[in-house]
Amino acid sequence: MRVLFLCHNHPTLQPGGTEVFSRNLFRELRDRHGVEGLFLAAVTSSHREPLPGTVVQAVGQATDEMLLWLDNFDRFFLTQPDTYGLATLAPLIEALAPDVVHVHHALQLGTETIDLVRRLAPRARFIFTAHDFFPICPQEGQLLTTDGRLCNGPTLDGCLRCFPDRGATDIVMRQLELRDVFADFDHILVPSEFARGRYVASGWSPERFSVMPNGVPELPAAPFRTVPDGRRDRFGFFGHINRFKGSLMLLRASHRLSEAGVAHRVTLHGGAAYQSEAFMAEFNTALAAAPAVHYRGAYVAEELAGLMQQVDWVVIPSIWWENAPLVVQEAFRHRRPVICSGIGGTAEMVRDGVDGLHAPVKDPAGLAEVMRRAIETEGLWQRLVEGIAPPVTLAESANRHLRLYEAALAVASV
Prior knowledge:
Keywords: Transferase. This is Glycosyltransferase family 4 protein. InterPro entries: Glyco_trans_4-like_N. It holds the Pfam family Glyco_trans_1_4. By secondary structure, the chain is α/β, with parallel strands linked by helices. It folds into 2 domains: about 1-215 and about 395-414, 3-Layer(aba) Sandwich (Rossmann fold), CATH 3.40.50; about 235-385, Rossmann fold (3-Layer(aba) Sandwich). About 40% of the residues lie in helices and about 15% in strands. An 8-stranded mixed beta sheet has the order 3-4-2-1-5-6-7-8, sandwiched between helices. Strands 11-10-9-12-13-14 form a 6-stranded parallel beta sheet, sandwiched between helices. Helix 8 (about 245-260) packs parallel to helix 9 (about 275-290).
């Protein structure tokens, strides 16, 4: 079987959850099941400068992983107008002749790239994993209004409030175009029931979806800290430092705990690339006001076990609907209970009072209270640890994907 993976970036350049999982899945299918193919990751001038005469670049030493340099992307319509540059892909796709094309994101690639690959590989089965909500939400896939309120799904009036400079025609055409592009896919995967519900509520056909949890490599769990007094008061944040992941909420919650005299420590791990000056100024001000917080910056996957060893709890205080953040599975792999905002796919993955705790969204005082309860409730941490079920492994995820590919090919051959 030959498979083409398309993703909006490469984890060596931007180690987000989608990039990490999709590349891991590609390698697992290759190494364990003998699947041949290509992992093609879109990049822009923010990551790499273009090379003369080609849009394709090497990445590291891998011969089956490449970068596709694309610029001029329209983030509202998810379109890629650089059709001249895309044309240079033709020999690569025709030589690969993929049996399956698995699109993990349309960002940077655009609908034109998908259409081009479909023309170049007419016999291929097309699979799409909706790792987030970009196809249904023009507000950067956030399902947040421009004033920071949770949005239950796109509506014409709601989108016009977020985009007053856009006409109704733009809003409707975006919805129809993207729904039409992905209607031609053989199957759409989502990693959570919550995400499936959001897409179906936006008018996408429910029968075309399957919930397919992402997986993490099966590695030994990090040892727990030795705590002679039994006090579990170390909290860790793992993820990109931005407004939507809730780092500001955690800083302000920690400030409240310090003001109340509650001993604790919070460590933030994650890069802060591409953030606005206004957000970083707000972040640094909040960080300076939280004496129990230490910001350690970006980390690589190989460091995660060592970093997990230093914390008792993982905190995910997102202010938006998360789909199925990989950090939940990473926390559970290392048997760390999760404190998360009680909304979206995160709340689906973390069972309140069983393997973690839910906190009110966008509420530093409420988050501080949950963190205080986590520290001071005798036996709670141990009970939650015992409630953690092992997450889906990368091997299990690869097996499920392979069966799906085989089923799609079997239907095509009938």
